[in-house]
Amino acid sequence: MTAQPEPVFAGPDLNLHHLGVACRSIDAETGLLEVLGYVREGEDFEDPNQGIRGRFLAGAGVRLELLEELGDSGVLRPWLAGRIKIYHHAYETPDLDASLARLLEAGARVARPPLPAVAFGGRRVAFVMLPNMMLVELIDAGPSRS
Q1: pLDDT value at position 52?
Q2: Superfamily of domain 15-140
Q3: Residue closest to 15 by CA, chosen among 109, 131, 141
Q4: Secondary structure of residue 132 in the 3-state scheme
Q5: pLDDT score of 60
Q6: Which residue ranges in the chain fall short of pLDDT 70?
Q7: What are the sequence ranges of the domains in the chain?
């Protein structure tokens, strides 16, 4: 597993890490995004707990996480059926539990509770749906980096 890059934007205690893109085929999407200057960042990953296969791309814009379903997991089906490509915003946080609690107090609801994620070396991620129907992924930043 390669080291994950630094976040691209620093906020109060959330750092924008990537935008999640629902794909039928991450290989086909990669080819299309290469025209915009995006290139592969690290190795592909599979996460059976989340039912996805993924790939990070970096370019002139925000980092993208291309995701396709593993087998018939169905996890991306609602977005693919609705022809929605960018379906989540992901933020690193130094305290996943505190950030999650703050979003819940603001009216968010848990879409997926914290669990280890293959893409982040086993660091925990959680998904919440904000009241405006924006899906947010929180990524535990892990030990502080010097």
Answers
A1: 96
A2: 2,3-Dihydroxybiphenyl 1,2-Dioxygenase, domain 1 (3.10.180.10)
A3: 141
A4: coil
A5: 85
A6: 1-12, 143-146
A7: 15-140
Predicted local confidence at residue 79, as pLDDT: 94
* Rounded Cα–Cα distance for residues 51 and 61 (Å): 27
Q: 59 phi and psi, to 5 degrees? A: -165, -155
pTM listed for this prediction: 0.85
Contact 77, 33 (CB under 8 A): no
Residue 125: closest CA among 25, 39, 24, 18: 18
Per DSSP, helices labelled H in 69-117 are: 77-81, 96-105
Q: What is the pLDDT of residue 6?
A: 53
Residue 95's alpha-carbon distances to 10, 102, 140, in angstroms, are: 14, 11, 7
Exposed / middle / buried, residue 94 (Cβ in 10 Å: 0-12, 13-18, 19+): middle
Q: Which residues pair with 125 in a beta bridge?
A: 115, 139
- Distance, first Cα to last Cα, the chain: 20
Tokens of 64: 């993208």
Q: Which single residue is written with the structure tokens 């592969």?
A: 40
In this structure, which amino acid lies at residue 94? P
Map tokens 């848990």 to a residue. 110
